[in-house]
Specification:
Layout lengths: L2 H13 L3 H12 L6 H13 L3 H14 L4 H13 L3 H13 L4 H15 L3 H14 L4 H13 L3 H14 L4 H13 L5 H13 L2 H13 L4 H12 L4 H13 L8 H9 L4 H13 L3 H15 L3 H13 L3 H8 L9 H10 L3 H14 L4 H14 L3 H6 L6 E4 L4 H14 L11 E6 L10 H19 L19 E16 L9 E8 L13 E3 L14 E3 L5 E6 L4 E3 L6 E10 L1
Antiparallel strand pairs: 1-7, 2-3, 3-9, 4-7, 4-9, 5-6, 5-8
Helix pairs in contact: 1-2, 1-3, 2-3, 3-4, 4-5, 5-6, 5-7, 6-7, 7-8, 8-9, 9-10, 9-11, 10-11, 11-12, 11-13, 12-13, 13-14, 14-15, 16-17, 17-18, 18-19, 19-20, 19-21, 20-21, 21-22, 21-23, 22-23
């Protein structure tokens, strides 16, 4: 057999998509005693394309047995391992390929960066993609991946530049067009809508681009954004993301009475769609309409069955609705451990059993020490029981504190003017704590306005100072375990409350440290009645627990309050005027 000619013929068949022809030639080759590693490698690639996974793994192994240092085989085997969920195997083979000089090295670095990104390790992903770009600086796909990773790290300015570089090399690369448009929206760039339109017309159309365009139009006050989604849910009645975004837009436009209108119309067409049913009752629950949400859940029960997930959601909604009998019936059909423990604990707390709630919550946080909600309710139960661990969790010095930012009155006034311009909705968003006011969309501190850039620098300095003033690091404590870590901003927004506006008591489940910065407050607040004051530690009404706040803070322009995200917090209403704040969550 002429092995080189047969291998070349098999490679040509593989490239042409003739897997059967390639397999026939290669099967004959590998039976030969002197078959090269390349034949087993290509046969592994054929088997991979044919989804013969066990066979592909065996052929990759044989190829490496014959050529243990071949970077291309290691790289392709790593790709295969990654697709199979064998992360350790993928990383092991990428390590060899990425350390071997030659043309495959950059490709292996890029592939490993993508794997790290999928595993939500953007720091490792960034190191690999930047090493790859040092080798292949003109590769548009690598610049696009670089932009995506930087966006994950909240480094939006650098992400925008990376996507721009990708598009300079490949103007029609879909991932770069989408990524650059998203970053434009998040940074508040005035041409965000145009970028989404450009992406859609240059081969990057898709549901995410349409949603992005709708949001960009809404951000600039154009009602066409809502109209886009109204048409989309008629064309695709099962598109849940569009239904939910439309509901959000309608609510903030003062049309809360139309909250589930599109869901209702879609379910008239596809009445057994379980995802639509679930979205509908969750939306009502998020909006605080728990009784209606329970009715919607009952309507969807036929489509979803009566499994554990539905019973868990029923228990949560019934607890919020204070229908504790119904919640208890649902919980009686569920175990007390794992994902169900928190719901059992909340019900126990609401029915006057803090000792049982504490035992359940202590087990829960031991299994999931980063669960903010579980720590919040555990704090309440320890307070009710007089447990000294409450002092460890929430009573140590400086866990919460107020600081004054170094902002002159003129800078505060400029910031207030900008924020007022960004408050373009008419009503509060679904599922947020404010009542009688509005909240900005997107990541406020990712925007490019100079007032916000300057503010972000001051806030990061204040966060660093707060963390440095905390008690010593404690790996068991939900905040102090992060004492010496590098902080990042998980989200940021502005709230504008007016006469009688307030925040219901709530927590921030995605943060570790939360905040309130006062930018403008009413001129005549009744200090005796503590109008507009921030309260930390008062439980929400749905808990059925009467506890006084742990601390209260008077609103003053330029004052920043930082506190653990697991502390329930809300504000007292005020008679008249405007209360303008900036808030953000910190993660580590």
């Amino acid at each position: 057999m002429d092995l080189p000619r047969t291998l070349a013929s098999a490679e040509a068949a593989y490239r042409a998509g003739d897997l059967r022809g390639a397999r026939a030639r290669l099967t004959e080759m590998v039976a030969h005693a002197k078959a090269p590693a390349a034949a087993f490698h290509l046969l592994a690639m054929v088997a991979r394309r044919e989804q013969r996974d066990a066979e592909a793994r065996a052929h990759f192994g044989e190829a490496l047995a014959r050529a243990p240092g071949d970077a291309e085989i290691h790289n392709n085997y790593a790709n295969f391992c990654g697709q199979q969920g064998d992360v350790e195997g993928a990383l092991r083979h990428y390590a060899v390929a990425a350390a071997t000089p030659g043309p495959v090295r950059a490709e292996a670095l890029v592939n490993r960066a993508v794997l790290h990104q999928q595993r939500q390790d953007p720091v490792a992903a960034l190191a690999d993609i930047e090493a790859a770009l040092a080798l292949v600086p003109a590769r548009g796909s690598a610049h696009s991946i670089h932009g995506t990773i930087l966006r994950d790290l909240d480094r939006l300015d650098e992400a925008a530049a990376a996507f721009d570089r990708a598009l300079a090399f490949e103007p029609s690369r879909a991932t770069a067009l989408r990524g650059r448009a998203r970053v434009a929206l998040e940074r508040g760039e005035p041409d965000a809508a145009g970028r989404f339109r450009h992406a859609a017309s240059h081969g990057a159309a898709g549901p995410d681009v349409l949603l992005g365009l709708a949001n960009a139009l809404e951000a600039q006050g154009d009602p066409a954004g809502m109209a886009l989604l109204e048409n989309a849910v008629v064309q695709v009645p099962g598109w849940v993301e569009a239904h939910e975004e439309l509901a959000r837009m309608r609510s903030e436009a003062g049309l809360a009475h139309r909250l589930t209108e599109s869901h209702d119309a879609a379910l008239a067409r596809v009445p057994t769609d379980p995802v639509l049913h679930r979205s509908r009752w969750r939306l009502l629950g998020t909006a605080g309409r728990h009784v209606e949400a329970l009715a919607a859940l009952d309507e969807g029960r036929a489509a979803l069955g009566n499994g554990p997930d539905l019973l868990l959601e029923e228990a949560k909604l019934a607890t919020e609705a204070r229908d504790l009998t119904r919640a208890g019936y649902a919980l009686a059909q569920l175990p007390e451990d794992g994902a169900y423990g928190l719901a059992h604990a909340r019900h126990a707390l609401a029915t006057g059993q803090p000792d049982r709630a504490a035992a359940l919550l202590e087990r829960f946080v031991q299994a999931d020490p980063d669960h903010v909600g579980a720590w919040a309710f555990l704090d309440l139960t320890w307070r009710l029981l007089g447990d000294p661990r409450h002092a460890w969790l929430s009573g140590q010095p400086d866990l919460f504190a107020a600081r004054r930012l170094p902002m002159e009155a003129e800078a505060l006034a400029d910031l207030a003017a900008l924020l007022r311009d960004l408050h373009r909705s008419r009503s509060h968003p679904i599922g947020q704590s404010l009542r009688g006011g509005t909240q900005t969309r997107g990541r406020l501190l990712a925007r490019t306005e100079p007032q916000l850039r300057a503010l972000k620098v001051q806030l990061l300095d204040a966060i660093a100072a707060h963390m440095a003033s905390l008690p010593p690091a404690d790996r068991k404590h939900p905040l102090l375990r992060h004492r010496d870590a590098q902080p990042g901003l998980a989200g940021s927004w502005s709230v504008r409350l007016h006469g009688a506006g307030f925040h219901v008591s709530h927590i921030h489940p995605r943060g570790v440290l939360s905040s309130a910065l006062y930018v403008a407050v009413p001129e005549a607040l009744d200090g005796q009645a503590r109008e507009g004051w921030l309260e930390l530690g008062r439980p929400p009404a749905s808990c059925g627990v009467a506890l006084e706040p742990l601390a209260q803070f008077e609103p003053q322009p330029g004052r920043l309050v930082l506190f653990p995200s697991y502390l329930f917090h809300g504000t007292r209403p005020f008679a008249s005027g405007e209360r303008l704040t900036v808030a953000f969550d910190v993660f580590f």
